[in-house]
Every structure is written in structure tokens, then in C-alpha cells.
Design goal:
Blueprint: H1 5-32, H2 43-97, H3 104-125, E1 128-129, E2 132-133, E3 161-165, E4 168-171, H4 176-180, H5 188-200, H6 204-257, H7 261-287, H8 290-294
Antiparallel strand pairs: 1-2, 3-4
Helix pairs in contact: 1-7, 2-3, 2-6, 3-5, 5-6
Family: Belongs to the bacterial flagellin family.
Organism: Paenibacillus puldeungensis
Domain Flagellin N-terminal: 7-140
Length: 295
Amino acid sequence: MRVTGMMQNIQLLKNLRNINTAMITGQQQLATGQRINKPSDDPIGTGYQMRYDTDLARSQEFLTNTQTGSEILKTMDSLMQQANDVLKRARTLTLQAANGTYDLEQRQTISAEIKQLREQMVTIGNSTYNGRYLFNGQKTDQPPYTVAGANGEQTDSGLFYLNVSPSVKVPVSITGEVVFGAANTDNVFKVLDDLSSALGSNNTSGISAALDKIDACADRISVSWAEIGARTNRFDLMENRITNDQVSLKEQRANVADVDVPNVIVDLKSKETVLQAALSTGARIMQTSLVDFLR
């Protein structure tokens, strides 16, 4: 087959175009850090990349849930400490008031402080996290207690859950009745109400009876406190597990989609050399004309 000048020129331009296309691809890979920038770069790898991206996005949602759950439980842990301190103070005051040397006026003074402690306990029961009430079950938009009627108010019995994996959800909330006692029983609010009344009326038998009831309320809070601690530990374990899974997923995704920078740089430099050689050779070929053969 006779090779014409036109054929040489076309082949030269085709080769230059291929080299330039390869160099543009290498430059784009270096600029983005990604080996796959469009599905045609690697159809099979694109499928794996999309799967890893989906898994990472879902994993991030679970990680956010575990972190949120941990923060809620840390808040509740602090509230249990506050409630415990309130009951400790109430018990100390009750022991003082049970002393036979105290008179009516002194006990009425203690009664006034017990009322303040009772209001503080209501405030603890109405605590929120990011605008959500913590002790009203699934009715997180409604306060569980009022100052006037806390001892007879029933909280929602539902639980607020957070998903920490596709098949696992962990309860976060604890209902107010579990922590502070059921409505219309010797819950913490009624105990403090009765104690305040006994102090105000100088009822020594009522004052003494309040000690055991305060201890029962403290025990109930301690049980809830321990449950909060156990849940906190579980969220911490789940957070560590999700973080480790993300490291593995990111590594697998990098193996499929991320560019090997040193190799791409070497390859790009090699293509630049080839391009310069092709341009130099092409320039010499294209300078040859019919006049050159007639000489």
C-alpha cells in the first residue's frame, strides 16, 4: 500500500490528539485526586465507588445518631446528679428538723427551703436537649410537669429511640415516672410536698416519716442513673465501631477511586516527553514537499 503525505498528516494528528487526551485525563486526575471522574473511566469501579459512597453516607447518619445519643445521655447524667443533690439537701434538712430542739419557726424556715427544692426538682423534670423535653417519652414537644400539679401528672410512657445501625435502635429517653415516681403515689414531688406541709404544721411524725420516703426516691433515681450510664457505654461502643467501619470503607473506596499521585505524575511526564518527540518528528515530516524531491 502506498503511503501518501495526507495519510502521514492524518496519522500524526491522530497520534497527537490521543496523547493530548491522555494528558488531559492525567491532569484532571491530579486536580481532583480521583481516578474515576466519569462512569466511562471505569464502569465496574464506578459501581463499587457508588456503593462505598452510599455506605459511607449511611454510616455517617448512624455516627451522628450515636453522637447525639451520647450528648443526650450526658445531659441526663448531669440532671441525675442535680436531682440526687436536691434529695441529699432535703434529707439533711429533714434530719435537722427532726431534732426535738427545733421549734415551729425554725421548721417553717426549713419548709420554705423544701418548697424551693421541690420547684428545682420540677425544673429538672422539665429539662430539655435542643428543645426536646427529656422526661416525657415520645411527647418531646410538651413539658411533663407543672409547678402546681407535678405530683399528680402522668408522663408519656413511650420511648425515644435512635438508630445506630440498619437493624439496631437504642432507647435514649427515660420517662419521668420511672425517674421521679408514678403519678398520685409517693413520687418525689409528693414526698417533698408532704414534707413541706409537715414542717409548716410542726408535725414531727410526718417529718420523720419523710426520711424513708426520700431514701426511696433517691434509690429510684440511682437506678435510672445506672441505666443512663449503661446506655452511654453502649453508644460509646457503637461510635467506636462505626468509626472503625468508616476507616475500612474509606480505604476500600480509595483503592477503587482515588488516584495514585506518584504514578500519575510519572505517567504524565512520560506523555509530555512523547508529545514533544511526536511534535518534533511531525514537524520534520510535514516540512517535506514535492520541491524537496525535485532537488
